[in-house]
Write a structure and sequence with these properties.
Distance between the termini: 11 Å
CATH class: Alpha Beta
Number of strands: 8
Number of domains: 1
Strand content: 5-15%
Oligomer: single chain
Bound molecules: adenine, zinc ion
Length: 331
């Protein structure tokens, strides 16, 4: 099964590029940039990754990314990830990026976007890996700041596929970001938002109604609202589910208790994703394998899930056709 899951052409729709920062690169960049970290070794970094909830993870996630300072750092971060993902059979990556977290540290938007852009072009050339870019707004910061970011990103609008909404969910409902999402829509950008990870089903409804999202990131708490499940099913709204993330952030106690099987049973359109692979114990292949161990799914089920991701991805029709062909040939 591992061999099949590895060969399966996988598209990753829910990934935070800052969450791909492995302890080795974190320490190397800390050295290169003279940034102090409260760790003496990679093992100490890993030992600190024992999370209670989303916030306890976010604290270390923002601390970890403090080593990213220059265009070269962002290039190295993404390239390191693309290479690992390529080795796991990932053929397309849609990366969230959190510019506000970098701007707040005095890093320019140019360094972030140019560095990531260089890596994306290299991955396309050298690894035949396509990618998309989702500029995320930090929902625990004011909506005004998000609007300012979107406007100041004008030189990069062409390189963006969508805007997203992430960071601390509880107490920060989607409704506060209606105006900035409307502006993104006017600019021709697609919209996605994290909702129903720790927050209630009402946040998923708000993301649909007020942000007009085409995909919901996580969405696992939708099951608490049967009418919402019916709506998501009928509309075919894609939920980008992240099994190992949900486990490590204690959204579920055990993977066996994860609602994925019920969500499939309910007819929802789902994809499997890694969220922050450097922090949650593995990338796409580990997530697929963990689901195989927990739920015993067949090859057909995994092929369907991989197909959902290719169908919902921000990519050209030509690329989609090519990847569908490769998927169908994978038996
Ligand atoms: N930022 C990075 N990972 C996240 C997650 N799982 N939820 C919300 N914000 C995030
Ligand atoms: Zn996420």
């Amino acid at each position: 099964m591992r061999d099949f899951l590895k060969r399966l052409p996988k598209a990753e729709l829910h990934l935070h590029i800052e969450g791909t920062l492995e302890p080795e690169l974190m320490m190397a960049l800390a050295d290169r940039n003279g940034v102090n970290l409260p760790y003496a070794s990679e093992d100490e970094v890993r030992a600190a990754y024992d999370f209670e909830d989303l916030q306890s993870f976010l604290d270390l996630y923002f601390q970890g990314m403090s080593v990213l300072r220059t265009e070269r750092d962002f290039h190295d971060l993404a390239m390191d990830y693309f290479q690992r993902a390529h080795a796991e059979g990932v053929v397309h990556v849609e990366m969230h990026v959190d510019p506000q977290a970098h701007l707040a540290r005095g890093v320019s938007l140019q360094a972030v976007m140019e560095g990531l852009g260089q890596a994306r072009r290299r991955a396309e050339r050298e690894l035949d890996m396509s990618s998309a870019m989702i500029m995320a707004f930090l929902r625990d910061k004011p909506a005004d700041e998000a609007m300012q970011l979107l406007e100041s990103a004008a030189p990069y609008w062409e390189t963006l596929d969508a805007v997203g909404l992430d960071s601390a969910e509880l107490g920060h409902p989607p409704s506060g970001f209606a105006e900035v999402f409307q502006r993104a829509r006017d600019l021709g950008l697609s919209r996605v938002a994290h909702a129903g990870e720790e927050g209630p089903p009402a946040y998923i409804r708000e993301a649909l109604d007020m942000l007009d999202v085409c995909r919901v990131d996580h969405g696992v708490r939708c099951l608490e609202d049967p009418a919402l499940v019916e709506r998501l099913r009928e509309q075919g709204t894609v939920l980008t589910v992240c099994p190992l993330s949900n486990l490590r952030l204690k959204v579920v106690d055990r993977l066996d208790d994860h609602p994925l099987p019920q969500m499939l049973e309910a007819g929802l359109t789902l994809t499997l994703n890694s969220d922050d692979p450097a922090y949650f114990g593995g990338g796409m292949l580990e997530n697929f394998e963990a689901c195989h161990r927990a739920f015993g799914w067949s090859r057909d089920t995994f092929r369907d899930l991989a197909r959902n991701a290719i169908d919902a991805a921000f990519m050209s029709d030509a690329r989609r056709g090519e990847l569908v062909g490769r998927l169908e040939a994978c038996t």
